[in-house]
Amino acid sequence: MPNKPDISLGGKFSTKVFSKDAVTDVKNLLDQWDFGDCGVEIVVKPMTKDQARSVGQNRLQYQWYGDLEKQGDQTAQEYRAYSKAYFGIPILLAEDEEFRDSYTKTVKPLSYQVKMALMLEPIALPITSRMNTDQMSRYLNAMSKHFSDQGFRLTSKDDYIACKGAS
Fold first, then answer.
1. Residue 65 pLDDT > 70
2. Among the four residues 37, 70, 105, 125, which has the most C-beta atoms within 10 Å?
3. Same domain, 28 and 78
4. Cα–Cα distance measured from residue 35 to residue 8, given in angstroms and rounded to the nearest whole number
5. What is the four-CA torsion angle of 121, 125, 129, 131, rounded to 10 degrees?
């Protein structure tokens, strides 16, 4: 779940809900906010299967960031930023016109250091969260190949699914 934004200052968040339990989590998060006099707009939009990443894909990517941290010299968040920049952005540039237009105008001209900072919290430019299941599969495959070729041992997709029961 995202951190509680400051609605009074125009803060906002977006989340994808995949189960009724997650709806309860969103309700509990909303119950914590003090909206004051400003109110809130809630938009509910159904997603097709092609639009949503699977829960299993999402869990696996974070498992891999942890695997990389344990074996490498960066934090999981730094490996996440690197992966978003090198594997995720090219996928979205090729296939997401809205992302491509915005990225080309605002992010592309920036230095490498600034781009990497944008991938990290607290900004964490949305990359994988924009992906559908097919795009996310290609992102994970690119990550797997790249880091395996460098000698990292990532939890196998099959082992992860068997252990966690991920969907």
1. yes
2. 125
3. no
4. 7
5. -150
